[in-house]
Structures are given as C-alpha cells and as structure tokens.
Amino acid sequence: MVAELKGKKVLVIGSGLSGVGSVSLLNKVGAVPIMLEENTKVSEDDIRGKLHDADRENTQIIIGTISDEVLDEISLVVPSPAVPLDTPTIMRIKDRNIPIWSEIELAFNFAKGKFVAITGTNGKTTTTTLVGEIMKAHFGKAYVVGNIGVSYAESALEMTDSSVTVGEISSFQLEAVDNFHANVSAILNVTPDHLNRHHTMECYASMKENIAHNQTKEDTCVLNYDNEYTRDFGKRCPAKVVFFSSKEKLQDGFYLDGEDIYMATAGNAMKVMNVHDMNLVGMCNIENVMAALAMSLAMDVPLATILSVIRNFKAVEHRIEFVATKRGVDYYNDSKGTNPDAAIQGIRAMSKPTILIGGGYDKGNEYDEWIENFGDTVKLLVLIGQTKEKIAECAKKHGFNNFVFKDTYEDALRFCTENAEPGDAVLLSPACASWDMFPNYETRGKKFKEYVNKLPD
User: What is the dihedral angle through the alpha carbons of 31, 34, 35, 36, rounded to the nearest 10 degrees?
Assistant: First the structure.
C-alpha cells in the first residue's frame, strides 16, 4: 500500500492537528491528499490557514459532503481521531471497500526506529511525557507524539533506524490500525469512558488491546495487575507481559509495598525507590511511575538513568497540577480529569478539605464511584455544564447534598474563591469532557490557572 500511494488520491477527514499532519506527510510522499471537513461552519480560508505553507496550494479541500464521483477515485481514507467509524460518510467508504487508516497507522508505515506505545483510560499523558524524558536522557533524542498533542505524521519521515518514538495512543486512534507494531506497549488501565462512541465496555477494551495486536514474545506489553480488564488481557496478550500493582506483592513485575516501589523477578524482590523521592503526588502517579520503570527497562535504559529522570520530573500541565496558594487556599488544576475514574485520582491526591468543581460534556458515564470517593475530603461540589443535573441526582442518591449549580465557568470560579477558607483546597477535576463549554480540556485548565494567578496573595 505504501509504495502504491504515489499519485493516488487519499481522503483525509478532519482539519485538526491529525489531519494537518496527515496532509503534510501525504504531500511529501507524492500522494494527492484531499481534505474533507464536514463542519460547514468553517471556511476554506480557515482550513488553508491551518495547513503548512507547502500544502496550501496543492491540497483540495471539500467542506460538507463529499460526492460519489470524488469518493470513487479515493484509494485510502485517513479519518481524524474525532471521526467515529460509523458515520454516514464512513459507511459509504466501507461500502466501497476503501482501506481506512488512522493517522497513527499512516505515520507508522513511513516511520523508522523503535516505538513505545502507551494507552489506557487514565494516566496516558503523564506516563508518555515521563517515558519520553527518560528516552531523551538515554538516547539523546526521542520523538513524543500522538494524543499528547503532537502529530506522529508530522515527523515520521525524519525518523531513522536508530530513532526512538514514544506515543500516547487513544482508543480512537487504535480503531483503524493494521500494520502498527510497538516494540514496547502499555495499557495503564481500562475503566468506563467514551461509551458514547464505543457503546460497550467490551468494544472499548478491545480497542485498547489493539495496541499489542502485532506484538510478539520478542516485544513487551506492560499491564496493570489491579485492573480487571488489563489483568485478563495478560492471559492472551501476544507479547511478553510485565505487570505492575499498587495493591499486590507480585512474584514478577513492579509493586508498591508501603511507601516503597519494588521490582520482583521469580519471587526475588529489589527495592527500586521510595515514593517520596519523586515530585509527583497521588496513587495514580505512583502507578504511572511503575509503568514507566517497566517500559524503560524493556527499552534497555539503565536503572540509574530512569531514577534520575523520575526524581526530577514535575507533574504535567492540567493533571493534579498545583497552581498557587492564595490567602491560605491551595488551588489545583486537574482539567484532564475528564472521566470519573481520572477524577477519583484527583480527589485521592487532596489532603485538605476541598471545594470541587465538577461537570461538563456528557460522555455517557456514571458518577456513583466518583461521588463515593468524596468521603471527608470534598466539602462542597460546584456543578457546571451539561451534566450538572445528572451528577446532582447521583450525589443525592449517595447522601451528598452539599452542591450548587453555576451557569458559567466564571461564576463557578468566583463562588469557589468566595467560599474557600484558609486551609482549604479548590480542585478543578470535572469528571467530564470540556466540549460543552470549551474546545478542549487544555483551554478549561488554562482559564482556571489564569483566574487563580490573578487572585490577590
């Protein structure tokens, strides 16, 4: 297929980061990209403005619906991750038996070197960033790509046989892979999320498992022993499996015992580090670090190098990120807590009475377990967005009635400031996506930080 793309028309659906990167790669290899943007509210000038200079004049752009005549000339389709594979357009493509590749699959077919692939419901960005820093420390250079906000296709052609790439891979990006093959992979956890897209947990979990589809026993797959889905997948995973656990003392793998992380081989355990030796907070980050240790050792990075990077690594933006202390109140930005399980980790990281900002776009999740974790930590819940009534009903069911509704984000932030007392924490950890009020979770988090940093000391 790769050799056959020169001169062939390739349809790229979506004009976001992934689509722009795909168009750039396709032009460089001599294909004829056509970009389809089904959002009729954007203009052709807007789309061309996103493209690289070299791509603006030689990329056909279609807004709205693609005609049968054009579709009949297409040899390959590359949908952006946000495009479900059951839309009317995609069904027309499937009826014609046109191959469908994700951007990850497209880039992989042109890239070289070794690939470390990380997926999971939660923890992907922190773990990917940390592993990327470890790879850079040992190999001198590493590409960090994927769902982390960097197009894999953008840099695929730069890579050589000695390159190392670390990719954050979402379930959406794993829906249309064929040849994609990671040397080291990880599924950090699988908990309910994106069920509005995948419909069932079984389908969602199977998409995550695609990350190891082409692996062999010469490759490594790192899995969470404490998670029912990933532990079960370990029985049928085609790669060599390395488990990590925060709850069980493993005979083989990485585990937490008290405040120490151990590495066990055939029952022989060696202490690796104390959790207080790192800057990251919360059990979720201890699990992320164990996964990073396992992946990095599988890439033959010396333990001393790994530990040096871990000890100096700071939390990634928007993930249980300490923002500031204002008038005795600590403010934390966990905007990346876009589902209940991720938001539970944010609550568990708090050690003070907490005013929690929750709510947002409805992805079809349930909030019972999230609310059950409020315990004595959450003193007040400030609800915003599309899911506020749904969350309120769930909270009442669990006996938590100390919540308020706010119509705007700004009103919610002001309310938190006015009601927080010295010794409290204010935590933005919505348990929901941001799409009903913001273009992405990053914007939501940045606005929170901007507001906090303007508060008087």
Answer: -140
Residue 444 structure tokens: 């939501």
132-179: pLDDT as tens digits: 999 999 999 999 999 888 999 999 999 999 999 999 998 889 989 999
* Model confidence pLDDT, tens digit, residues 398-431: 999 999 999 999 999 999 999 999 999 999 999 9
The beta strands (E) that lie in 4-95 are given as: 9-13, 32-37, 60-63, 74-79
Q: DSSP labels for 32-43?
A: EEEEEE--TTS-
* Burial profile 376-395: b = 16 or more Cβ within 10 angstroms, e = fewer: ebbbbbbbbbbbbebbbebb
Token duo for residue 71: 């579709």
Would you state the structure tokens that stand for residue 84, as one six-digit string? 């479900």
Top CATH class, 9-100: alpha beta
Mean predicted confidence (pLDDT) in 42-50: 92
Superfamily classification of domain 321-454? Mur ligase, C-terminal domain (3.90.190.20)
362 Cβ neighbours under 8 A, 6+ residues apart:
196, 386, 387, 390, 432, 436
Q: Where are the domains of the chain?
A: 9-100, 105-312, 321-454
User: Which is nearest to 430 in space by CA: 451, 444, 417, 418?
Assistant: 444
pTM for the model = 0.79
Query: Rounded to whole angstroms, how far apart are CA atoms 250 and 294?
Result: 14
Structure tokens at 125: 């960005």
> Does domain 105-312 correspond to CATH entry 3.40.1190.10?
yes
Summarize pLDDT for 7-19 with one digit per residue, the tens: 999 999 999 899 9
As given in the structure block, the two tokens for residue 97 are 């038996």
361 DSSP β-pair partners:
433
Q: What is the pLDDT of residues 320-341, one digit of tens each?
A: 888 999 999 999 999 989 989 8
Residue 1 CA, distance from chain mean position: 29
H/E stretch holding 264: strand 260-265
What is the C-alpha separation between 93 and 255, in angstroms, rounded? 47
DSSP for residue 221: E
Percent of the chain with pLDDT over 70: 98
